[in-house]
Amino acid sequence: MSLEGGVTFIKIGGPDLQLKMSHEEKLKNYRTAPFDARFPNTNQTRNCYQNYLDYHRCNKALTAKDKDPAPCEWYHRVYKSLCPIAWVQKWDDQLEAGTFPGKI
Amino acid sequence: MSSMLKVVGKQLKNHPALIPLFIFIGGGATMSMMYLARLALKNPDVSWDRKNNPEPWNKLEHNQQYKLFAVNMDYTKLKKDRPDF
């Protein structure tokens, strides 16, 4: 529905909603990491690691294509919500030293 | 092998009440083996070929359910969150 003056309100709900939301809107509405069907169990270790990897892979892929890496911020938020700070620090140090074991 | 089966066959003919035992034990063993096979072949954490299938969990759809029973989680209502890149 839209009011005069071009203001549009988005109704929360509906399966296409996330696709229609822009990246800025998604990040503004971000509260915590949403449920991820790939990791339905209590152990969320892989969820944390996968988002860390995806953030860096996304940055690498988008900068290689000369596109704005802003969408990658989603993964950054998710891994910051999920991962223990010590792990993130260790992996960041490893990335700087070039010893990070994951494939980016 | 066949001599063992012949012995069992004779025992069953003399004691037919044992047949349900075979059915239930056989059914239980089959179900266990089927569950192990499901785990080995369908579990998204399992990768038999690390070179060509390194991260099999990424092949799941955003609303695909692997669990047999999911309590309090309606997978049909899940939306696609992650940006593509």
UniProtKB/TrEMBL annotation, chain A:
<dbReference type="InterPro" id="IPR048280">
    <property type="entry name" value="COX6B-like"/>
</dbReference>
<dbReference type="GO" id="GO:0005739">
    <property type="term" value="C:mitochondrion"/>
</dbReference>
<keyword id="KW-1015">Disulfide bond</keyword>
<dbReference type="InterPro" id="IPR036549">
    <property type="entry name" value="CX6/COA6-like_sf"/>
</dbReference>
<dbReference type="InterPro" id="IPR003213">
    <property type="entry name" value="Cyt_c_oxidase_su6B"/>
</dbReference>
<dbReference type="Pfam" id="PF02297">
    <property type="entry name" value="COX6B"/>
</dbReference>
<protein>
    <recommendedName>
        <fullName>Cytochrome c oxidase subunit 6B1</fullName>
    </recommendedName>
</protein>
<keyword id="KW-0496">Mitochondrion</keyword>
<dbReference type="GO" id="GO:0045277">
    <property type="term" value="C:respiratory chain complex IV"/>
</dbReference>
UniProtKB/TrEMBL annotation, chain B:
<keyword id="KW-0472">Membrane</keyword>
<keyword id="KW-0813">Transport</keyword>
<keyword id="KW-0496">Mitochondrion</keyword>
<comment type="similarity">
    <text>Belongs to the complex IV NDUFA4 subunit family.</text>
</comment>
<keyword id="KW-0249">Electron transport</keyword>
<dbReference type="GO" id="GO:0005743">
    <property type="term" value="C:mitochondrial inner membrane"/>
</dbReference>
<keyword id="KW-0679">Respiratory chain</keyword>
<keyword id="KW-1133">Transmembrane helix</keyword>
<keyword id="KW-0999">Mitochondrion inner membrane</keyword>
<dbReference type="Pfam" id="PF06522">
    <property type="entry name" value="B12D"/>
</dbReference>
<feature type="transmembrane region" description="Helical">
    <location>
        <begin position="20"/>
        <end position="41"/>
    </location>
</feature>
<keyword id="KW-0812">Transmembrane</keyword>
<dbReference type="InterPro" id="IPR010530">
    <property type="entry name" value="B12D"/>
</dbReference>
<protein>
    <recommendedName>
        <fullName>Cytochrome c oxidase subunit NDUFA4</fullName>
    </recommendedName>
</protein>
